[in-house]
Design a protein that fits this description.
The protein is of the alpha/beta class. The chain has helices spanning 38-42, 48-52, 75-93, 102-105, 112-133, 160-179, 202-223, 247-256, 269-274, 279-289, 315-327, 349-376, 378-386, 393-396, 405-414, 426-436, and strands spanning 32-33, 36-37, 44-47, 97-101, 136-141, 184-187, 193-194, 229-231, 241-242, 263-268, 292-296, 336-338. It folds into two domains: 32-376, Divalent-metal-dependent TIM barrel enzymes (TIM Barrel, Alpha-Beta Barrel); 381-436, no CATH class. The longest helix has 28 residues, at 349-376. 42% of the residues are buried. The structure holds D-xylose and nickel (II) ion (2 copies).
């Protein structure tokens, strides 16, 4: 165990009354709901990048957060030190999963072959640590947005050499994710978009992205990777316009390329906000379309127009996001990935623990409340009652695929329905929701 954090033993559940800031007040990993423990329901995942590579830089200032493994020196030795601290943190938090980009875990080499080798060396260390701690991999991904070679995109780059590079990089990242038993493989199209249409062949770029994804799906089958590929929608940032704008856009893209059975979505709260959607909208839509995969759980800022990636702490907001997932039976291969970073003034090692502990507590509360709401069924009954007219056979018939517009017009001519508007009861339902909070 490293000397990085102030505590070396796993954070305990001490209940809501505790004054200990490094204890869980609500997240009791072993507590069971419906035959499954909270740990199994929530599938908490610590992300490598924000927790161990983020140094606090913003467009106006450089690093503020100093870490012993970031800076000059033997980069592979530092990567190993980083892995030690990362696994210490997973253990201290009792987080069952982690996630990473290839470039988070190991330094970029002089060639792709060297970079891949670096990743493999650290992955071997991970394999041993995973064995020893029981921590599992929720997903892996490739960073194809930080290096300057990707400035005009990865698979959507005008330069075919970059496309080829990306194919080779993704192949290796998928291999490593598979070797480590990863349950999903994620693709966030960081620079898959454009800055200006004046220099962009949009149609061609979409075709490149589509073929790239089809090849990734084929490769997944070839190596026997059972989990889904997850696309992570985001409307903009870093590019002015990203192709994976939101869940609806991604669905169209998957259908157009025939990969909707193999590819699902990883939905992030802050990205939903940037697309001017609510988190629950994106979740509900993905569930409705059959492409719900996983969540990047974080929080945007209402005043700030970028991806602030704060730790999610707002329980009522999260209840609304979790409610449709609970109703749908919970996560399958997905989980709650803390794609969240401490603020650039939060300099202490333990700030990482406070962020995670607080958000794990908030998620646990929200999940329990959402479960109560779903079990109680009052809200569900109101929705069902609103659509009850559709249960009548003559109304069902309108959607049976055989009835035509002319048939319905004839029915209306014979027996005019005379629709009677009814209250939507929104305020009543908002009050009802508050009773659970
Ligand atoms: C950035 C994304 C990124 C992905 C993984 O906005 O959220 O962190 O989750 O590449
Ligand atoms: Ni994310
Ligand atoms: Ni993000």
């Amino acid at each position: 165990m490293s000397q990085f954090f102030s505590i070396k033993t796993p954070v305990k559940f001490e209940g809501a009354g505790t004054a200990n800031p490094l204890a869980f007040r609500h997240y009791d990993a072993k507590k069971t709901i419906g035959g499954k423990s909270l740990a199994e329901h929530l599938r908490f995942t610590v992300c490598y990048w924000h927790s161990f590579t983020w140094t606090g830089s913003d467009p106006f200032g450089g690093p503020t957060i100093e870490r012993p493994w970031i800076g000059a020196g033997d980069q592979m030795a530092l990567a190993k030190q980083k892995a030690d601290v990362a696994f210490d943190m997973f253990t201290v938090l009792g987080a069952p999963y982690f996630s990473f980009h290839d470039r988070d875990i190991a330094p970029e080499g002089a060639t792709l072959a060297e970079s891949n080798k670096n990743v493999s060396v650290i992955a071997e260390i991970f394999a041993k640590k995973m064995q020893a701690t029981g921590v599992k991999l929720l997903w892996g991904t490739a960073n194809m947005f930080s290096h300057r070679r990707f400035m005009a995109g990865a698979a959507t780059n005008p330069d075919p050499d970059v496309f080829a590079w990306c194919a080779a990089q993704v192949k290796h990242a998928m291999d490593v994710t598979h070797q480590l038993g990863g349950e999903n493989y994620v693709m966030w199209g960081g620079r898959e978009g454009y800055e200006s249409l004046l220099n962009t062949d949009l149609k061609r770029e979409l075709a490149q992205a589509g073929r790239f994804l089809q090849m990734a799906v084929d490769y997944k089958h070839k190596i026997g990777f059972k989990g889904p590929i997850l696309i992570e929608p985001k409307p903009q940032e870093p590019t002015k316009h990203q192709y994976d704008y939101d869940v609806g856009n991604v669905y169209g893209f998957l259908k157009a390329n025939g990969v909707e059975k193999d590819v699902k979505v990883n939905i992030e709260q802050n990205h939903a906000m940037l697309a001017k959607h609510s988190f629950e909208h994106e979740i509900e839509l993905a569930l409705a379309l059959g492409i719900f995969g996983s969540l990047d759980i974080n929080r945007g800022d209402n005043q700030v127009g970028w991806d602030t990636d704060q730790f999610a702490m707002n329980v009522p907001e999260m209840v609304l996001a979790f409610y449709p997932i609970v109703k749908a039976g919970g996560f399958t291969t997905g989980g709650l990935n803390f794609d969240a970073k401490i603020r650039r003034q939060s300099l202490d090692a333990d700030d990482l623990l406070h962020g995670h502990i607080g958000s794990m507590d908030a998620c646990a509360r929200a999940w329990e409340i959402a479960t109560t709401m779903a079990a109680d069924g009052t809200l569900e009954k109101h929705v069902a009652a609103r659509y009850a007219g559709w249960d009548k056979p003559e109304n069902k018939q309108m959607l049976d695929g055989k009835t035509t517009l002319a048939d319905i017009a004839a029915r209306v001519a014979k027996n005019e329905p005379n629709p009677q508007p009814r209250s939507c009861k929104q305020e009543y339902l908002e009050n009802l929701i508050n009773r659970y909070m």
